[in-house]
Amino acid sequence: MVHKDHYKTVNDDEEAPWVKEPTIKIVNGDRNALDPVIVKRDENIERGNWSNKLEFILSCFSYAVGLGTIWRFPYLCYRNGGGAFLIPYAIMYVFAGLPLFFFELSFGQYASEGPVSIWKVAPFFQGIGYAMFVISFLIGIYYNMVVAWSFRYLFASMTSVLPWTSCDNDWNTIHCRDFDIKNCTLLEGLVDSSRTCHIKSEVSDSFWKELELMNTNSRLPADEYFHKRVLDISTGIHDLGPINWELALCLLLAWVCVFFVLLRGIKSFGKAVYFTALFPYLILTILLIRSATLPGFVDGIMFYLTPQWSKLTEASVWGDAAMQIFFSLSPCWGGLITLASYNRFHNNCFRDAVIVATGNVLTAFFAGFVIFGIIGFMAFELGTTVDKVATQGAGLAFAVYPEAVARLPIAPLWSILFFVMLLTLGLGTQFTVLETVVTTIVDLWPHKLRGKNHKWVLLASATVMFLLGLIMCTNGGMYVLQLIDTYAATFSALIIGMAEVCVIAWHYGIDRFLDDIKLMLGHDAPPRWYWRFVWKFFTPVIIVAILVFTLVDFRTLTYGDYTYPLEATIIGFLIASSSVAMVPIVAIYKVFQLDGPILERVRVLLQPSSDWGPALQIHRIEAGAPTHTDSQVPLALPNYRFEELELELATVLERDSESDNWINMKCTGPN
Asked: Is 65 annotated as a binding residue?
């Protein structure tokens, strides 16, 4: 029976953002009357749902539009032919990015399960879910370190003069240069440490070589601030050194923020994404308007967009396009499955996939105007060309961009805006990464961990990941971060993505999966033949091609002038294999859990378990799946009387077009 507390009326708060649904009005504690009232009620009472559709879309935006959107795509676009790069990028979006994104949203929404427990569809392959869990766990450890850096820079920006504007600080070296060399560069000269400009024809050859060496090793103030003051970077990964407690406290602050946002699960998470998903667009727009007024802006934009059509004949360009679209949408980490698992069963996940995936691509393109507009200004200030300033990764966010900001009027204001934007981008992704870890653990033991114990799982997960992240607060922490970033979710994510798609398309059955989607949407995802072809053939082939390209293009990891030793490369491959290894390990473990001949055990494990399918009884009836009795969800309880089942049907089985309407229902007395 449905307890009356599951139906909370809000007659005393007309402004509360409750979901409008056809619901039951409790009269004297009995279910004996129906009335159109506004309630806040989840379809899946046991597990919970998003409060509204917008929260889910924004959470996907917040997850997919991460730091890579700002510091990787613009650089790839410039390096691979400018505007011409958009052609392979768009093709890869249509045949790889969007199909994978839609695939995982549909998969998670249909079963309402996390990335591990969802593999009731084929228990033999449950290791794929554990692999996703490991990937998210590893990413969560280092990703929050970038958030911690953003906090560190935000606090440093709250001053009248930015600390990276000069070379007159304790942390600066003899290689630092904070003077204007533009005029000297225009004369094809070089500047010495005393800020004197020298022309080659006026000095000896030996002195000129000394000047060239000095200028080759020169560093901008913002670069030295990041590496010498913030990181206090060591000579290599072999020299970790002590913990930098300023960074450790910033890392703790980052984890505290993530913890409190997720404390009430998707209810509090859903409110936070209104800020983390939308605020970056406001800041990007403000920065674009400001950069458009700076000298060198047009040069930067032209460098970004000017098409080099000859680049389209290079395989590396297509490989970069495929890799970028794959990693920018963040499939195969388990995050998309987790977010979609909190949807209502009949949510239009196809529409959501198109909106979010397309929005992510457009955001990356838009961010390029901001980044290259500022880089163009930076090149103008330094009296050099854009290609000598353009970079990617942490160097762009924490060295080049701060240097450019420091040269603007009211520099602290622009610095604060930029690092608040980085914070929102980083936290938006980190929320989903940690929620994936927590959801996976809770879904494995729902009767023990769901409800009041959720917060303890969250606290334990955040604490463990924080403690493991302290190694990145050491002097050699940057080298550790680069190692994990390179190996945690590249080869492994590609292998897991290929396995995931092939198992569903070829083993579970592509037509069966498309029928599941049709059941949720009320119609086929248009066009059905396209999804059938892409998921069975094209997407797996593209993933294999990306994997091969990644392996062929593999180079020993470097950071600046430092080359990682062989031991670090071996550790990197161990990190990558730690997730992939879960697939055979879990398969073997499950086989030995059963009795009987080996082949018979494998045959049983390859079949969907009896509790595979929609979470709620009423949706299982729609899907023709076996009913189950092990859930606390009212719609999953057995022995319903007909009028009770009919009442639940009226309450739950609304379509998207009806979900926000007032529905008048008449009471029909019991038979």
From this structure: yes
Helix, strand, or coil (residue 9): strand
Buried-exposed string 169-196: b where 16+ CB fall within 10 A, e elsewhere: bebbeebbbbeebeebbeeebbbeeeee
DSSP state of 452: G
- Confirm whether residue 425 is marked as ligand binding: yes
Helices 127-156 and 454-469: angle between axes, nearest 10 degrees: 70
Q: Identity (one letter) of the amino acid at 268?
A: S
At 28, phi and psi to the nearest 5? 55, 35
pLDDT at 182: 55
Residue 93 Cα distances to 71, 96, 324, 542, angstroms = 19, 6, 10, 11
- Of residues 416, 424, 401, the one with CA closest to residue 154: 416
Cα gap 321→89, rounded to integer Å:
5
Euclidean distance between CA atoms 663 and 343, whole angstroms? 21
Amino acid at the residue 472: M
Question: What is the mean pLDDT of each successive set of 10 residues along the chain, which is 671 residues long?
Answer: 38 38 40 39 82 92 86 80 86 90 96 93 95 94 94 95 88 75 61 68 72 68 91 93 96 96 89 92 92 90 86 83 84 92 94 94 89 85 73 73 86 93 93 93 86 90 97 95 89 90 95 95 92 93 85 84 92 94 95 92 93 89 68 42 48 45 38 37
- What's the rounded Cα separation, in Å, for the pair 100 and 542? 11
Residue at token pair 């595979």? 612
**CB of 36 closer than 8 Å to CB of 22:** yes
Q: Are strands 24-27 and 30-34 parallel, antiparallel or unpaired?
A: antiparallel
pLDDT at 188: 63
What long-range pairs does 628-637 form, CB within 8 A, spacing at least 24? Answer: 631/46, 632/45, 632/46, 632/447, 633/44, 633/45, 633/46, 633/47, 634/1, 634/2, 634/6, 634/45
Burial class (CB in 10 A: 0-12, 13-18, 19+), 72: buried
Q: What is the DSSP letter of 334?
A: S
Inter-residue contact 257 to 427 (CB < 8 Å): yes
* Cβ atoms of residues 471 and 141 within 8 Å: no
Q: Residue 629: its pLDDT value, please?
A: 46
The DSSP bridge pattern shows strands 562-563 and 558-559 to be antiparallel
Which residue type sits at 317? V
Question: Is 551 annotated for ligand binding?
Answer: no
Distance CA 435, CA 268 (A): 12
